[in-house]
Structures are given as C-alpha cells and as structure tokens.
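Morning F.,

Quick status update on the modeling queue. The single chain you submitted on Monday has been processed. Sequence for confirmation:
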Amino acid sequence: MPSLNTASPVPLDQLSRLRFSAATAAFQIEGARTEDGRGTSIWDTFVDTPERVIDGSTADPSADSYHRWREDVALAADLGLDRYRFSISWVRVQPDGRGGANSLGLDYYSRLVDDLLEAGVTPFPTLYHWDLPTTLEADGGWLARDTAFRFAEYTQLVADRLGDRVEHWYTLNEPAMTTLQGYAVGELAPGRFLLFDALPTVHHQLLAHGLATDVLRRAGAESVGLTNNHTHVLAADDSPECAAAVHAYDLLHNRIYADPVLLGAYPDLTALGSPELPIEDGDLALIAQRPDFYGINFYNPTTIGPPPADSPIPFDLLPTPGVPVTGFGEDWPIMPETLTALLLDFDRRYGEALPPMIIGENGASFPEPETAGRVEDADRISYLDGHLRAVAAAMADGARVDEYTVWSLIDNFEWADGYTQRFGLAHVDFTTGERTPKASYDWYRALIAQARA
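Structure tokens below.
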C-alpha cells in the first residue's frame, strides 16, 4: 500500500488535526440533462455554443452520476473520507430559478444524502457551483440584484427538504471565477466580456451568500460558509510599477471577495479605478455574518507584471518561470510553498475575524488515457503530497486549517476544457462510465489512514 513520504522535515503530525474530503460538482458529473424536469443553466447554453468548449464535447452523460451515484458514494466511503463535497444543481431543484421545487430533482439529492450518511460519510453540499438558471441570466444574471433574492428562495427549497439531515453547507463556489472568467473576460459561462463593468456581480454574489446564510441558520445548520478561488500573487520584478500591479491583482482576485465577508467592508479600490459597487443599506451586515468557516480553493500562484501601455487593465498575467506545470501548461505552475504563504497571509491579514479555514479544492490534471484502466499518476501524487505539506507547514506556523479537500473524487467534464483535462482520484471511462481508482486514490486512502493512526 502506498504511504506518505516522510523525508521532508515538515511536521506531518499536523495532518492528524485535519478532516479529509474530496469534491465534485453537479454539472460536471451528473449528466441526465433532460431528465426528471431539470431546467437549463448558463452552462448548458455555453456548451451548446460552437467553439466554446475546446473539444466540442458536452457534459451529458459525463460520469453519469445521476444514475451511478452509488458508485461515487462507495468510492468516497472506501477512501475513508470524513466528508464528501458535492454540489446541488439549481436547475434540477428549481428549473426556472423561480417558483416551487422540482420534487424529482430533490429526490435525487435526498437519496445521495441518505446513502452518504449510511456509508459513514458526512454530506457537505455546495448550493451554487456556477449553474445559474438561464431564465435568471436573461434578466441580468449576477449583474442583477434580484438574483441574490432568487438564490435565497432556492436555498429555502433545499433546506426544507434536506436540512433535517444536512448540517454543513457551502453557499457559493468561487465567486471570483464567476466574475473574472464568466462576466469579465468571457472564458466561462455566461461568456460575457465586460471587464470592470462585471464588478457588480461581486456584490450580488456576496449578498446571495449572506441571504442564504440567514436561511440555512434559521433551518438549523451547524456550519455555513463559502469557498473562493484564491491565489498567492508573485511579482515579476521588484519595480514600483510591478508592486502596483501586484496590489491591483490581489484586490481583484482575493481581497474584494474576502474583505466584505470577513471585515464587513470592501477594500480601497482606488487601484482599480474606484469602481462604484451597488451596495444598499444593510447589505454589508448580511454579507459579514461571521461564517463558520472560510473556504480556500487553491491550485497555483499567479505571477504579475506591469501592464502594457495600451492595456485596459492595470496588470499583466505572466508565466511563472522555473517551475513545473500541470496539464494546463504555463497557466498552472506548481509551487506548493505559495499555498503556505497564502494561508499565513490570510491568518495575519484577518486575525480574529478569520474563522477556521477549509481547503475547499486542491488538485491537478495531467495527461491520462481515455479508456478504463489503472492509472499510475505519480505526478498527481507529488502535487497533492507537496500541497498537503504546505498546509501542514502553515498549521505549524499558527494558521488554523480544519479540512483538506481533493479536487476531484472522479474525472469529470472540465468546463471549457471538456474532457481534455482529468483531475480525478478515480479514472472515468466516459464511454462506459466505468470508474477505476488511480494510484493517487490508494495514496490518499493510505494518507487518511495514517493521519488517523
């Protein structure tokens, strides 16, 4: 059985304090796009648009988890996971983003929750993992304040059905990526190119989080938080111009999302041109209800340089020199030590305002075969090993991290990259649906067992 490499001086005993999890997202694994009354999300529209997805694929059937959820539960249980992070599809529960619940959709999630509990794995659902109903996008999407209130109504529908068994909730996944990639530069759904005019989506997503937090707590939830994609920002050089660019990017990717939740105020946005956010009375109090945890999804650092002279944005994204990369190439450099730096920066920046942190996602894709079979994914094991050591190092230096989550439990439809990138601990043959644990699956199972020993 694989075991954790203990050659490093990092105090791995810190890992005994962690809960261990793995994650998936509804749109990426469920398939069953037209079954049981499911509605249409912005991602359905995106993948149906020619040339939006690199390999021209769609997410149906993907891993077909709508029909094969029991196999996923068995994988989670066999790993020894404390929790399984999955997402609930808004359009499977509330097809038009308004009105009553689709009972057939909620039945699916109720079965999943029951089977997880029976298997001894705590369900840890995410209410929003990017699948906004197209009906709401047609009315402005996250640019519209009303969407936050529609999200609260959807949350109530889910809480009414599952709240008797589900105690721990993520409200939103990666509002930064919704704003930056979905509305600002159009790389992800809904595919809009608004640049800084996308910033109202920041506030409306955070307002949705605040409203949903209130709903879930009134329903008896034990813990509620959100998780965002955060990055440690590296300077390309030591010039004042580069320092200014780094500051601007840190605001746009990190602080504009974290500060309101943790401090109750937006940071000074002068470096971004002082954009006006659509804040109304009482909004910040809702947003800043102290979360029970703060989730950090981390994949890689970001190297920033000064912007070109004609750039509409105050920074330039650059390759990170001299480090290995994942299957995404130079856009995803591998530097585990930057996760330690990020966690310690959060701990020192937010102090007592920071609740326990959870690593909500961490993982890597590498080239792998399409057909079923054993995958000896040593590169993934090295990546995960390095980042777990980075978490342990941050904990040893005082950061409180309560949970670590691998992205992902199984291979899935990887958004605009279709099936060209595989993140799973278990390989999925997308022709047959067969799941086959990889070497990294066995490694993670052994690590969990050793951390508990």
